[in-house]
Amino acid sequence: MARFPALQEANRGLLAFVTQTGRFPLGQAAIQHQQDSLFHLSQRAVEKGARLVLWSEGSSLLLKQAEPALLARGQAFSARHRVYLLMALGVVMPGPIWAANGTSVRPFLENKTILITPSGQIANVFYKNHPVPLVEPSRSGDGQIPTLATAYGRLAPSICYDADHMATMQQLGQKRIGLLLLPAGDWQAISPFHSYMAVFRAVENGCSLARQVSGGLSLFVDYRGKVLARHDGYARGDNLTIVSLPVNNVSTLYTRFGDWLAYAAMALLAGFVLQAIRQKRPIKRKPISTLFVLPVA
Predict the structure, then answer these.
(1) Mean pLDDT of the chain
(2) Would you tell me which CATH number, out of the four given (3.40.50.620, 2.170.130.10, 3.60.110.10, 1.20.1250.20), belongs to the domain 5-97+105-249?
C-alpha cells in the first residue's frame, strides 16, 4: 500500500464518506450524476433493440437509505420498456466502521446485483459470493447462484471475482444456465487477462457469458468461447456495447465429472513415475584394480 499513495488517499476518502456522509454534498451530487448516466446509456441500449441491459460491477455507489429510490427507478424503467435490467450496485452502509471489539473493520459495503423483469418485478438479489480478500469490506453471499427462467433461456448473475472459483461456477452447468451475467470491475494491470480467465468458466459449463467490465476488457462469448463482441474500457469512444448472444446450455464432461482431466493427468503422471521406479536397474560397475609396486630387496 505504501507504494500507491493515490490509493491510500482514495481509501481515506472512502472511510470518511462512510463515517461522515453528511459532509460530502459534492459526492452526493456526483453519485446522482452517475446514476443519471447509467439510465441514459440504458435508454440508448433499449433504443438500439436491447432486451436485456447489464451494468458493470458497482456501477452505482450509493448510500443504503438511497437504495429504495434507485430500485424504484430501475423497476419503472424495466416496466416501461419491457426489458430485463441487471443493476449492479455498491451499497454503502454508513456509520462507524470498526467492529465492536475495535480490532477489525465491519463489512460496510453490499456488492450486489438486482435482476428486474420486464414486468418491473425484482426476480432476485445476488450478493457477491467471494469478495476480494483484504481489499473488499463487503457482505458475502450464501454461495449459491440464483437462476431465472425466461422466454430466451435460463439466466444467472454472478460478480467478477466469483468466476475465479471453479467449484462455485460448476453450478452453471448443474443448473443448465444458458447465459451468465457477470458484471465486473478490473484495472489496467490485470486487463485483459482476468476477462479471458472467465471465458474458461463459460466453456467448462457450456453457457454463454456476458462480462461487462469497468476498468478493463468487456467480453461477450458463446458456450464455445467464441468472442461475439468486446469493448476495451481504456479505449476512447462509447461505453455502450450491443450484442446478440445465444442463451442455451450445452452439456459438457466438466459438468458431469468435474475436474476429471486434471485428476486423470495426475494419475497418469503417478503411473509413469511408478513404472520408472520399477524398471530401474542397478548399474554394474567394474572393480577397480590396484597395482602395488613392491620395492626390490
Answers:
(1) 88
(2) 3.60.110.10
